[in-house]
Amino acid sequence: MKEVEEVALYRSVVVGTDGSESSFRAVERAAEVAGAAGATLYIATAYQQQGGSSSGPASDALKGEAFQITGNAPAYEILHSAADRARNAGAQRIEERAIADKNPVDALIDLVIGVKADLLVVGNRGLSSITGRILGSVPSDVARKADIDVLIVHTV
């Protein structure tokens, strides 16, 4: 009888967070999947560098939906909090990535390509809102643009 080689379903998992409680729930779910598969978990957050491009119009348009991160200090605080939650949820190998001056969708897709991820995890916040339906949302846009598995976690 031929021995079957064990193959992990996922070797690398990417998850995005903006520091909101709902995005932390997506991080925890991604950590559970990564931990069970023995995969590396890449936790990412996108931010605008201070003195960089203006975020005023976007924040004004999104109002309560905007979790604007300006400068890298808050971004790293968010990543460290997310990594703590990920460890508690079962991830063993975690890498934190703060991505400057990119919108969240492009930041996640670029990271997926850069680390050759097998799975992208996002929360569903904004997916069923009117703004999300008209203008698009992170979950729907990454699901459309990613060429890997996308897990949309029910977080709201």
Provide an overview of this structure.
The protein contains six helices and five strands; from the N terminus they run E-H-E-H-H-E-H-E-H-H-E. It has 156 residues and is α/β, with parallel strands linked by helices. The longest helix is centred in the middle third of the chain and has 18 residues. The chain is globular and about 40 Å long. The protein has one domain: Rossmann fold (3-Layer(aba) Sandwich), CATH 3.40.50. The chain is 44% helix and 20% strand.
SSE order, as H and E? EHEHHEHEHHE
Major sheet attributes: 5 strands, parallel
Radius of gyration: 16 Å
Q: Return the CATH topology.
A: Rossmann fold
Distance between the amino and carboxyl termini: 49 Å
Average pLDDT, to the nearest integer?
81
CATH homologous superfamily assignment: HUPs
Tally of separate domains: 1
Number of strands: 5
Report the structural category: alpha/beta
**What spatial form do the alpha-carbon principal axes imply?**
globular
| Regions with little confidence, pLDDT below 50 for 5+ residues | 61-69, 129-135
Helix content: 40-55%
Based on the coordinates given, report the CATH architecture: 3-Layer(aba) Sandwich
β-sheet strand percentage: 15-25%
Q: Supply the CATH class.
A: Alpha Beta
Instruction: Work out the helix count.
Output: 6
Family: Belongs to the universal stress protein A family.
Protein name: UspA domain-containing protein
InterPro entries: Rossmann-like_a/b/a_fold, Universal_stress_UspA, UspA
Organism: Segniliparus rugosus (strain ATCC BAA-974 / DSM 45345 / CCUG 50838 / CIP 108380 / JCM 13579 / CDC 945)
